[in-house]
Prior knowledge:
Elements: H1 2-24, H2 29-42, H3 49-59, E1 63-64, E2 72-74, E3 85-88
Antiparallel strand pairs: 1-2, 2-3
Amino acid sequence: KFFNEAIxxxxxxxxRVVCTAxxxxxxxxxxxxxxxFFDAYRTERLPANLIQAQRDYWGSRTYELSANPGTxxxxxxxxxxxxxxxxxxxxxxxxxxxxxxx
Length: 102
C-alpha cells in the first residue's frame, strides 16, 4: 500500500523529470527505462505489432489477430498484394510461404 501510494503521488514529477532531461539532451537511462517498465507493467494490453511483424517477416512465424483471438495469419511481406493469409490456430507455427521463399 505504501509503495503504491508513493508511486501514484510522485508519478507526475517522475514524468516531468524524464521529459525535461530528454528535452535538454541529458541521458538518464535508469529513470527512462524504469518509467517505461512501470508503464508496461501496469498496462493490461500493449501494442506489439512491430515486434510481431518483424518476427513474421524474418522467421515467418505468424501473428495473432487481436480483433479475432485464436486466428493466426502470415503476411506476405515480399509481395504486398498477397497479405494476411489465415494459417490456423497454432501459435508460432512455421509457415511455408511460396512468395516469401520461407
